[in-house]
Design goal:
By secondary structure, the protein is mostly beta strands. Helices cover about 10% and strands about 25% of the residues. The strands form 2 sheets. It has a 5-stranded mixed beta sheet with strand order 2-1-7-3-5, with no helix packed on it. Strands 4-6 form a two-stranded antiparallel sheet. A hairpin with a 4-residue loop joins strand 1 and strand 2. The longest helix has 7 residues, at about 20-25. The termini are far apart. It binds FE2/S2 (inorganic) cluster (FES). FE2/S2 (inorganic) cluster binds near residues 34, 35, 41, 43 and 44. FE2/S2 (inorganic) cluster binds near residues 35, 36, 39, 42 and 69.
Length: about 90
């Protein structure tokens, strides 16, 4: 069954299963910070409020308790996350 990703500010969506969490957020035009996209830098981290994620590769970056790296994990259950600085959407180019 597909999991639901909910962002604290109230936006929710069902991600495509082949996408990691960062790609899933990007597919919804959610503005998330990132650099390496491989678990090295830690810049993509978000707060995991509720739910469980599964890492596709072990993150190298230090991840504080309660935080996750969306670039190298996907949802294992319904998730509620909080994006530092709030949930913003990319403007159309
Ligand atoms: S973008 Fe570098 S750890 Fe996720």
């Amino acid at each position: 069954m597909a999991n639901i990703i909910k962002i604290m500010e109230g936006f929710s969506f069902i991600p495509r299963s082949e996408l990691n969490l960062l790609e899933a957020l990007e597919s919804q035009k959610v503005d998330v910070e990132y650099q390496c996209r491989e678990g090295f830098c830690g810049s993509c981290q978000v707060q995991l409020v509720e739910g469980e994620v599964e890492y596709t590769s072990d993150p190298i970056a230090f991840v504080p308790e309660g935080r996750i790296l969306p670039c190298c994990c996907h949802a294992k259950s319904d998730l509620t996350i909080e994006i530092p600085g709030g949930c913003h959407f990319k403007k159309p180019e």
